[in-house]
Amino acid sequence: MEIDKYNIVIIGGGPGGYTAGIRAAMKGARVAVVEADKLGGVCLNRGCIPSKALIASAEQYKRMKAASSFGINLSSPPVYDWLAMRARKDKIVDGLVGGISQLFKSHGVDHHFGFGKITGQNEVTVVDENRGTKALKTDNIIIGTGSRSASIPGIAVDGQRILTSDHLLELDQLPKSILIIGAGVIGCEWACMLSLLDVEVTVVEMLERALPFEDATTSKLFERELKKMKIKLHTGTKVESITPGPEGVSATLSGGGKVEANQMLVAVGRAFNTEEIGLEEVGVKLNKNGSIKTDAGMRTNIDNIYAIGDVRGDILLAYTATHDGMVAVENALGGNLKRNYLGVPSVIFTHPEVASVGLSEAKAAEKHELAIGKFPLRALGKAHAENEISGEVKVIGDKKTDKLLGVHIVGVHATEVIHTAALAVNRGLTVTQLGSLIFGHPVISESLMEAAHDVHGSAVHLAKKK
Ligand code: NAD
Questions:
Q1: What is the pLDDT of residues 325-373, one digit of tens each?
Q2: In Å, what is the CA distance from 113 to each residue of 7, 17, 35, 103?
Q3: Is residue 9 located within the same domain as residue 135?
């Protein structure tokens, strides 16, 4: 058996693991990343990037259908080609995956292809059917094995009629109708994208509102948008049973209703990839929900073993995984960093987009007396220029101290606009400080400035309040 010796071996080449590998190499460590699939993980291969590539196609189609409102006459209505959209998505993903390999070469990160298993406190064994088995000796191990779609008991995903988002990305043709279980981030992003592509969409959510982890006002505004798009939403509802139906699937809902659809998407959260990687053998402790327990420095209960990203079950986001990876590398190399999630934005690529940072109104009200400002996009010149006037920005401040507590946006470019607010929350700015920046004009971000002014009743583009 071949033996290699490293300072750090990282199991998992997703946005947590691959970036940690590069950072470790930059810091002079001898580092290996063990990955059994393509580099880039879920984010690059089956999540963030491919879905955003398809959403861009769907939005382009929507804009072309509305061409006449921009003064453009098309000689015939636009027609989309799903397979061409899929091919475009694949090309983007392949290019970026290749980019990671290039970065590894340039920084001197070893990529070991295969399934990584911890076979000792200082050993990771890489198993690959074709290349055989190899043991990597290492001072430190970072686990970044990520997560996969969770399932619902009694509803078996078959990849034909009952799908996860992984299957949707690879469909040969889109269904005429789809039933989506779960109005969380994945459910709502796919609901909007498929609806833009003329698929009939029904969404079932067991909690009382769509995007239940966002601010309640956001859910209300967003649900209005779903209605405009003719997406049917059943909240406070579960799917009781699924049977084959004339359309494909027939679902009985907890309220007694029935939904017929060609296919069904299960988007009810994620399960952690902790199986078969040797955790029990070395005694790595888990949380109650099955994720790996770490401290704020990403250390597990075993001295030289760290865990980062989704598998920690904290925040399941590509970008916090990357942050975790940086912290773990620093600490593995003798540092003492703690994660800092203050001001991590939530960015949701629905139609319109949704984004937030800081506390929701309900959470903020538990500890603060609030001052709230709002600004609707329809009062903004740039929103009219873009023909995207739906939505609103809400700024929440502390009435006494003026500290900025949270910002919640529904509207075009929300996922970009939020970053100004994220910096403000991260740096502990006041609402006045956020509003005192001279924003460019005309930009959608002005809505943030106006909403900050509205906290103090001084937004000049709003009518006088009675
Ligand atoms: P989620 O936790 O966001 O939403 C799952 C939803 O399913 C919840 O609203 C939940 O109440 C509902 N649900 C659960 N069981 C149900 C049942 N039996 N019937 C009806 N509804 C049920 O999870 P997700 O949408 O699967 O996304 C997974 C993770 O990936 C999330 O943590 C998310 O943050 C992340 N993600 C992020 C982005 C982004 O940042 N843009 C995009 C996609 C995914």
A1: 999 999 999 999 999 999 999 999 999 999 999 999 999 999 999 999 9
A2: 18, 14, 5, 16
A3: yes
- Of 408, 413, 441, 456, which one is the catalytic site residue? 441
- How far is the C-alpha of 357 from the C-alpha of 450, rounded, in Å? 17
Active site residue 441: yes
Residue 258 lies in a domain: yes
Cα–chain center distance at 322: 13
* Contacting residues for 229 by C-beta, under 8 A, at least 6 apart: 192, 195, 196, 201, 351
Strand partners, 179: 202, 264
CA distances to 79, 229, 231, 264, 323 from 193, rounded to whole Å, are: 16, 11, 11, 15, 29
* Backbone conformation region of residue 256, classed left if phi is above 0, alpha if psi is from -120 to 50, else beta: left
Contacts of 3 (CB under 8 A, 6+ apart): 134, 135, 136, 137
Q: Is residue 136 part of a domain?
A: yes
Q: Which of 147, 180, 206 has the most ligand 1 atoms within 8 A of CB, as the residue to mutate? A: 206
Residues 52 and 143 in one domain: yes
Measured from the CB, is residue 206 less than 6 Å from ligand 1?
Answer: yes
- Tens digits of residue pLDDT in 181-213: 999 999 999 999 999 999 999 999 999 999 999
Alpha-carbon distance 131 to 136, whole Å? 14
Rounded to a whole number, what is the distance in angstroms from the first to the last CA of the chain?
80
